[in-house]
Each structure stands twice: as C-alpha cells, then as structure tokens.
Amino acid sequence: xxxxxxxxxxxxxxxxxxxxxxxxxxxxxxxxxxxxxxxxxxxxxxxxxxxxxxxxxxxxxxxxxxxxxxxxxxxxxxxxxxxxxxxxxxxxxxxxxxxxxxxxxxxxxxxxxxxxxxxxxxxxxxxxxxxxxxxxxxxxxxxxxxxxxxxxxxxxxxxxxxxxxx
Length: 166
Known about the structure:
Elements: H1 3-15, E1 23-28, E2 33-36, E3 49-52, E4 61-67, E5 70-75, E6 81-83, E7 96-98, E8 108-112, E9 118-123, E10 129-132, E11 143-146, E12 161-165
Antiparallel strand pairs: 1-4, 1-12, 2-3, 4-5, 5-8, 6-7, 8-9, 9-12, 10-11
C-alpha cells in the first residue's frame, strides 16, 4: 500500500470515528490563524474568515465523510456546512456557512500537500481551492475559492491548510 493510501486510511478512520464526532482546527499554512465563524454567528450566509486561534467552538470543524474522498466540513458551533453560495464557479467567491444540503457546492476534497496533516481543499462542483483572499495574513481575511495553484508554488501557502485536533 502506498504512503498516500496509508495516510488516507488513517485519516478516514480518524474522521469517521463512530462513537462521537471528532473536531479539528483548520489553519492556513501562511499564518498562525484558524478558520473561524466570525462572532460565533449562527446566521445562514455568514462569510467564513481567518482569525487568531482561540480554541472556541466557532473554530472547530467536523469532517463528515461522504464517498470518494468527498467531505462536508461542518461547524461544531452551529452544525452548518461550509458552502460556496449559489454553486458559484467564480474565483473570489466567499465561502459561507449554510444548512447542510448534500449538494456538490458543500462537498470538498482533501489533497495532501507536503505532509499528512497539510492539505489543499477544493470544492467538488467548481474544482477550485479554498484560499485566503489576497494571501492576507490579517485577522478577518475571507476564506474564498480560487483557481488552484501548484502546491510547490511558493505563493500557494494561502491554499494549504493544516488540519489538527483541537
């Protein structure tokens, strides 16, 4: 079995633990921030941002396995899914939280990048990567979808995310 297959087998088991949900922090590789539901909003359509890591539920995410390395990414805070609104395929579209529907605009693929804990995450419907807008390091910068960069591109760190337990 290849290293790639072993890593995914381990991740599959960790992400689909049957007894209870496992929550993770998602951190852009180019900053020391975490993906965050701003102000712990429960409002449908709230744009997701990066913020200083706090360990609070608005920065905890469950990966719900669907099939074929497709996942819903669900907020511990409110049970809402990461969503590309209106199934947009436009680069720069903000990622929001929305009730989970199972539609492809809420399905994401994790592609390992450099380590078993660092991923490019791309939207199934658009084949675009999750990205921190403008390669920003600022708290409050939006999570968007953008054309995927080559993972070896030195300017792609805003499209690589560490995934680790809270």
